[in-house]
Structure formats: C-alpha cells, structure tokens
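Our consortium's second objective concerns turning raw sequence data into structural hypotheses that experimental partners can test. To show how far this objective has progressed, the report includes one record in full. It was chosen at random from the queue rather than selected for favorable results. The single chain below, 587 residues long, was entered without modification.
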Amino acid sequence: MKKNIKIAKIQKQLKEKKIDCLIINRTDEFLNEYISPDSERLYWATDFSGSAGKAIIHQEKSYLFVDGRYTFQAKEQVDEMVVTLLHLNEFSSELSKNFIKENCIALDPKLHSIEEIKKIIDLTNKNETKLYFTESNLIDELWEHKPNREYGTIFDHSNNYAGIDSLKKIHAFIKTLKKNNLDTYFLSSLDSIAWLLNLRGYDILYTPVAFAYLLISVDSKPVLYLSINKLDEDLKLRLANFLIIKPIEEIDSIFDNLQNSLKIGFDFKNTSYYFYNLALQNNHQGVSLENPCLLPKATKNLIELEGSKRAHIRDGVSITKFLYWLKNHKNIEKETEISVAKKLLDFRKSNELFHSVSFDSISAIGKNAALPHYRADINNPIKMKKNSIYLSDSGGQYLDGTTDITRTIILGNPTHEQRDRFTRVLKGHIRLSSHVFAKGTKGTDIDYLARESLQEIGCDYDHGTGHGIGSFLSVHEAPQRISKKTMFPSVELLGGMILSNEPGYYKEGEYGIRIENIIIVQEESKDLFKFENISWAPIDRDLINTEILSKDELEWINVYHQSVFDKLSEFLNIKEKVWLQKVTMPL
C-alpha cells in the first residue's frame, strides 16, 4: 500500500480557505452509483476504489466511511496512518460533531441530494455553523491530470426490447404531475431518462446510459439536455417529434426562461441540491415528489420480462461452459484470476445481443473471495490454487436484458467447514427463492429468511441479500431491494420487479462464499406473490452437505438442477453436456 500524500494537500487547502471540514461523497452530479473517471474524487483523495463511500476531511484528521461490502478492501487500499476507517453507519454521528458555533463545513452542492443538504442546513442554522458551498470542487482544484468528461454515442432502444413507446411513458409521467398539481419536473436520474425516452448510451462504463437532464412540463414540450453531436440523424428526428433538444453545456440556464413562480417537482432523495437551488434562485418553488419513473421502470412489462429470461438463458450457457472449463482444467494453477475472468468474457462475447459486461467482474481465489467486492489487480495477477474456493460474480448487458450471477466452486477438495458454510448459504438462498408472501410485503420483511441458517451458528454477512436489476440498464436498480431494515430503505415488492438473491459467508483471510440467482416477483394469486427464478447454471455439488438439507431443500436443488440441464444442454458440446448431466444428477 502506497503512502497517501494527497490528504495533506487537501488539509493545507482547508487551512488556507479557513474551512474546518470537507465532506466528499462518492458520486457525480447525477448522484450515480456508477460514475465516470472524472468523478472519482473519493478514490483520488483516499485511494479507496469501491462504489460506495463518504469522507470527512478535517485540517488535522480525516475519516473514510464504507459499508460491510468494502471493509476489507478499504483496509488494503487506504493509508491508515492518515485516514481513519469507519463504518458508513457512523457517518451521521461523526458529522454531527462538526455542527458547532463558527465552525465552517464545506461541500460541493452538485454531489449531495436535496434531502441531505436540507438536513445539513437545518443543523448549521440551529448550531450557528457556517456552510460553504464550493463553486469549483476543492478536489478538482488539486487533481493534476484529471480526466476530461467523455461523451459516447447515444442510440435508440427499440420498442422490440423496451415494450412501451416513449410517448406513452411521457403521457403517464405528465398525468402524475397533474395529479400532484405540479407545473414541471426536473429529472436527472440517468437510467430513468434512458428508460423514459427509450435511449441508451456509452457514458458510464458497463451501464448503457447517456449523460442527460430532462425537464418535463404539463403545458409545453419536454426539454432534453444532452450531447447533441452524439445522436445519429434518425434518433434526433424521433426525439424532435415530441421534445426540444438542447446542448448539455447549457444546463445551468435550464430555469432561466420559464415563466415565474412555477411549481417544479424534484426527487429530494435522488437529485442534486445544486439544481434545486438554481430553481429557487429563479423564483420557482421546489416541491418534493418521488421520481415518477421509479416504479414503472422497476415493474417490468411483459416484453422486458421475456427478454430478460432469454438473456439469462444465453448467459447461463456461458457460465456453464466456464464452470466446465474450470472444473476440468488440467493445469489450473497456471491460470490467474485475470485469465479466468477473460475466459468467461470470451464465452459471453459470442452470445447473441451481447453489449458488454454489466459491472467489473469479481474473480476471486482463496482469501480474496472473502472480500465481497474484490477487484483483481491486472498489474499483479493472483495465481489460481488447487484445493481452494473460487468465487465468480459477473454479469452481462444484453439488448434484451441485464444479468448478474455468482457461483462459488471448489477447485479440488473442500474442508468440512467450507461445505457446512456453503450449504447454509444455499439453505438461505433456497428459503428466499421458495417463499410465498402477501401483497404489501417489503424486501426488508423477508431478508431474515436468507440469514437464518447462518445465524443458527452465530454467522452472518454484512451486505444486502438482493438488489434490483434493470432491463438493459443498471445492474443495481432502485427502489426494489432485499436487506436488513437497518441497512437500506425498502419498498413494497410488486409484480414484475427483478431482484438478485445472493446470501453469502466470508471468513476474513481464508475464503468467501456467495450464491446468486436472479428472481422475478410474480403474482401467485389475488393476494399472494412468489419468486420465479430466471438464472440457470449448476450449483457446485462438491460443496453441498446433504445431511443438513431438509427434504424440501433437497427437492428444490434437484428440480433446479433438472431445469438447468433441460434449458441449457442443447447449447453445449458433447463433453460439456455429459459433464452437466453428471453435476445436475439428483442428490
């Protein structure tokens, strides 16, 4: 781990500007989870490369806050001589210590939500603390050779895949505005804009969205701000039929020429305070309304659902070919985490409608598998090892769907403990997958099912059990999720929502286990829902201890494995097919 000299530069800057503490959010002006290189300010400052985190930097000390997915990773990446590591749950209490009279707290209003900054403003007013909104980001002022913002091609996502015409979606959106007595709505959620307008792009790595903003009004054409020169003529013509297109460089004047005193809706949880403040400065009223795209986007239509199922079968063939190759490799120790991940990518690339991977694949052997969001270092590839657990968490972006799947296998012989922990993770996976639940149930209400078997022996995992999945969009889609009540807010599970089911177990310094399939919320009856599994790949029977599986659990795994064989075998060569038949035999 290299010594961090950048924190000292930031602290020097704080002293010069008479700032007592600086808050850094790991996001961009769209409040994305996945961001472009020019927005990686937290990484630049702290050397922590995870996808979620915050920092508080004082003149003499600094703190980095990460959640349980990244605890081990942060320890390996961060110079703890200058940065103190804390859990993300401790951020609010640590920040509250700074609300004292005459203290100056600085932040970039583009990188914090309206809700977040409103709370901070209340606390600063209450405690006579100074709040300093930076006009230029303080990190950007210090960041030498900062990457430039890159704009990629923007392309049409046809109704063959999207299922519903964009005009129909906009009419429903406007109906929601009228119902809430709003004149207009400001939308900056990139996956929502992509979904609403049936657009896709290349601006965020592995998430097919374009940098854009959208202003939708009740009485006039929507106005779309994006990189106009990245649109082809056909797409430009389609969009020009129902909206006005403006260069994204003009976004700061978005509210300048509107009539006075409009009621403008914002999603206070997911929109940058900067734009809310712009509206106020132009004498408009900012009103809180949850993004009207969220639930329609999350509850997939029939064409999106069928597309996702087809994409998962193609993807499952790739995973199965990969597992066959791994399990039958004669010299596995000559391979590295990087080389085997590349082999999986090669299998995926041959699939019909493949666009890209859906996130940076996790390829982890031995103790690296104990890091839930481990990233293999291309400059220091780790060799594969016999008699070790290997974990592969990966996914694909297909024109008809987004995939995400994790398989944990043993390369050789497992220990008794490894088989026990794997089987307990499997029991949790099965319990959740098999659960039938009442309408109105939230993801937080059923998360416990995936943890019970582990908790019986005093074990658990410090991440959510399931996240939402988009339709050729974000592999982490809001608002649907399955997690502990203390982790993340949750919403009612509705028919057509797609989620992951991924319990795990991690023994620091030794091994990690995770089993992930994708499930669809499906109506069972008038008042009940169930999950439909759509991921297909064998679960490693070498790691299953049948003695602790119930009769129902044994039946589940046998039925699942029969379905894997039935759905995938026709796409395999003879050797792969014979192997798949063997590894999916009834337990």
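The partners drew two points from this record. The longest strand covers residues 388-394. The mean pLDDT is 96. Both points have been shared with the crystallography group to help prioritize constructs.
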